[in-house]
Amino acid sequence: MKKTIAFTLAAASIATFGTTTTFAAENSTTKSVPVYRLYNTTTGEHFYTEGSYEKNHLVMLGWKYEGIGWNAAITGAPVYRVYNPNAMNKGKAAGDHYYTQSLYEAKTLVSKGWKWDNNANPVFYSGGKIPVYVAFNSNVETGTHNYTTSQFEQASLLKIGWKYGSVAWNTVSQGVAVPQMNVRQLASGNFSSVQGVWQNAKTGKTLIFKGNTVTGTALKNEIIPLKTGSMNHNIAWVSADWSKSDVFPTIIGNSGIFMFASANTSPSDNIDATNKTQDRLGVFTNGGNAVFGASSASDFYYRIE
Asked: Tell me: the pLDDT tens digits for 180-194?
């Protein structure tokens, strides 16, 4: 597959990550490693990596974690990643990544000004029976290629004008897409949409939701039971049982409140200086929805797992 350095800049069509959230493995005995999928809401690019550190770092830079794109074989035909530093988005240098099994193609692009990623080593391997589809958007310079195991996502992109529609390589099994935060469920005591690990961009501390409890380094790894809450100007406020906790000396009784805001939603009664493109949450002892302002925006947590 050929890729040129210059493209016609136009509005990008943003792909959705399939329609289901869990998938069965092709063979449970086959060794594999997860390939994480992230999305840059500014450039429209999806990024794929086996590195948990790289994934977490990108989330802290503002990328949206979408889940595990697929589970790759640990050996097989190598897949390389190269980077175009000259790709533009809205008149600004933004860069774009491309993945290929062809070492010749990768070297050709590098000779034209592209850069090697991962020191020219494979970023993952092709192996297994599950196809990873590629689609190409010729109308943009960034987010030009999308890779997915979802036939629905692939068909949806081709329907709106993306090209190629071919198999880029194979993989062991499909992945798991993270659910979108549902603030109304959270307010009613259903925490299924936030299960997993969330990280603070400033401190690196974590909040880990499991069932109806939360723990993590931000809470000194104490296990805190969550309660039902309420909706307040588009934000879910959820209280917790702090009666046996010494996490925050300033917390008395149930005054520590978790605040949840879904992507592209802000409190209707205050300004919002957080990263509105992502689901986000925080735990506060006072301040109401004013905590979404500039003085507290860095105290919010974003999903990394």
From this structure: 999 999 999 999 999
